[in-house]
Amino acid sequence: MSYWHNPQGLTPKAYICGFCSNKVASSKGYIGSNNAVLYLCSNCDEPTYFFGLGGQLPDVAPGNSVQHLPADIESLYNEARNSVAASCYTGSVLICRKLLMNIGVQQGAETGKAFIFYIDYLAEKGFIPPNGRGWVDHIRKKGNEATHEIVLMSKEDCEDLIAFSEMLIKFIYEFPSKIPSTSA
């Protein structure tokens, strides 16, 4: 049952809901000015706003969920993804950078060090896969740009950083948990 008051019948629209991540086809919602339309998800009943030029809010969070993450790592990763869905691209880049530092500390690095210490720690301890150092440096550089320069990050920047972050945390947390335990 909908908790929305008197939604209108609309021309059906297929989209991926930014709340439940399901592909839906909704025909209920509200029409606003400038060709803006708010559709109600046929699965979760949450609203998705479509701008006159085709933009969607909330957008779909990039990346995929990752299993077997420590709570703080999972929280940061999901925050980076959800920031993109909310069109907060610079924030997402900064969170991806912070995620690297948190992974380093969670894997045993000392706290209170310069950011590059955590990058070097992850590399030296084998947490960065072969040929992955370039991606870690890319996250570092983009994060530095977002922190120290007057520049806004793009959705494409975030999608790249989240894709690598996902791969890294799968490499460190998810894949090892899938190895069957062997008893001697």
State the major sheet. Answer: 5 strands, antiparallel
Radius of gyration: 20 Å
Helix/strand-derived category reads alpha+beta
**How many angstroms separate the termini?**
56 Å
Strand order of the largest sheet: 1-2-3-4-5
Instruction: Give the beta-strand count.
Output: 5
Helix tally?
5
Give the overall shape, derived from the CA principal axes.
elongated
Strand share of the residues? 15-25%
Parts with pLDDT < 50 across at least 5 consecutive residues:
none
N to C succession of SSEs? EEEEEHHHHH
Mean pLDDT: 92
Query: Helix share of residues?
Result: 40-55%
Overview of this structure, please?
- This protein has 184 residues and is an alpha+beta fold.
- It is built from five helices and five strands, in the order βββββααααα.
- A hairpin with a 5-residue loop joins strand 4 (47-50) and strand 5 (56-57).
